[in-house]
Amino acid sequence: MADWFADNGLLLGLALLDGLAYAALVFMVAVGLNLVFGVLRILNVAHGSFFAIGGYTAASIGAFVMARGLPEWLALPVLVLAAVVVGGIAGPLIERFILRRIYAEEPVLQLLVTFALFMILEDVQKLIWGVQPVHHDAAMRLLGTVDVPFGHDSIPFTAYQLYVLPGVALFTLVGLAWFLRRTLTGRVIVAVTTDREAATAMGIDAKKVFLLTFTFGAALAALGGALSSPTAALVPGVGAGTMVLSFAVVATAGLGQIEGAAIAALMIGLGRSIAVYFLPEAEVLVPYIIMVGVLLVRPNGLFGVVETRRI
Amino acid sequence: MIAKHEAVLAALLVAAVLAAAAVSPWLIFILTIATAKGIAVLGILLLLRAGQVSFGHALFVAFSAYTVAFLAPVLNDVALLLPLGALAAMALGLVVGAFVVRYREIFFGMLNLALSMVFYSLLEKLYTITHGTDGIRVSLPRFFGMALERHAYEWAVLVTALVLAVACAVFARIYLASPMGQGLSAIKTREARLEFMGVSARLVLLSAYVISALMAGMAGAIIAMTSRHVTPHLGYWTASGELVFIAILGGAGGVIGPFLGAIAFELVRVYAAASFADAWQLILGTTLLLVIMFARGGLWGLVLKLTGRRA
Lengths: 311, 311
What we know:
Chain A has 311 residues and is mainly alpha-helical. Helix content of chain A is 72%, strand content 4%. Chain A has helices at 2-40, 47-67, 75-97, 107-129, 138-143, 159-182, 184-194, 196-201, 206-228, 238-253, 259-278, 285-297, and strands at 145-150, 153-158. In chain A, 48% of the residues are buried. The radius of gyration of chain B is 19 Å and the shape is globular. The interface between A and B is large, with 44 and 46 residues.
């Protein structure tokens, strides 16, 4: 064991750092998916597309800022701007004109409508940004690297992945929990999640809550995509992959759980990056193995609550 | 009365497919693939009857296709490859089914998706066995002991596919009318009442699941023997989504719907991909949205409307 650490300790450290950064991104997407499902009761298959479009938009705005010779520090706010733009435009449009028509439908049809949206958005990306990889890493280069002490050695790691990604994820987690529990709008959202009919009867405008939640969820996914854009090139298909992964996180955590999603994202993020360094063939398998393992023992996810059965 | 009507239409459809294939031989390929997908969609239809949608049936298509590709060098005959591929998929369906029938609706759909993604990643990553994304070529098999030249072989596979399609459609009709099939509708409306009557909902769903896996397996074997090149993409989750898409496009009412849907889907896809390489998903996605919002009965519903009957 001691020998193993001597040989592989640094690699393990790198895997942990990588996994933490990756978990932060996955959490951003999964928590949005979870929030939207909790309120609208629709599992949005196109959620991963917001991630991809957020990333592409961030890269485009970033490239524009660079080309204009604007100050370099703008690279960071640009990421947030991209998320606001994508969430603010796509969210209301899709909720108002498509989802609002299908709230009363069977879950199967709702799932298919979002699948149709996914197909459409997939090609919209190709039409706007082409099929070549898009990469813009100004934000990551801006912050440089840090030497992370690890045992007797140290691991050079980008400050962006070390501080910004987990920082934003933590801020989202705490902010969201505070928002949902302490503000009026947040409590209205929780009320609609818990019992839509009772909430509507109390005078809550459920339509407004749906619109707000969907837009917010889309913006969170877009922010995840924007934050990921400096760390990896964007290619067609990234939305599809993200969607499946964030579902794995949501299913592991249990539908409707926010803190749970953070823990599941950590499990899956760390599991995946450890696999990347020590068993590369299993990289893609790890998230699903974790998910299936959890669901076999706890069919509603780690923190899921059993719903009362309607008879 | 409806059954008679359906039989006439089925005969017309088979005749139309054969005529189209005779007039323009390049259609043989598309029509064989469409017929194969129609068979797989028939299986999806059985699950839809229970209100469950699987976003992972491409797993069985791909599993059977790869079984054919692996066995082709040793057992190079359609008469052996087709049943072996289909039975392999059926056996896998029994194992996977035993796990997923414990879940309903979104969890059912997405767990299927996750499991199919596990298989997809295995196909992609285990390069030494599966040749990764390059896929495996299948040499021209014999047809019931006869070594046919290419054109005759393509005709033989098309006719085989049509015979299987008719057999599966008849079987689906009988199955849905049987008590077992009626149990499926009960799962959709009130599962608890089914259980109160002493019928195991899980067993009812499992029977439909295994049959649907068998049908997807037939489709996969035919596709492998037609395109004679199998790639992991056969098992990607979007391929599963296509099957559900075709089911809705065709209309969930009759057993002819899947085949109408599959032919329409493949033709649109081929033409759209030829004219707008990066926008065919956009076209298909928009079609799906329009069908769900404005033509709920699908193509089969339109046929019924035109011939003055109600589903």
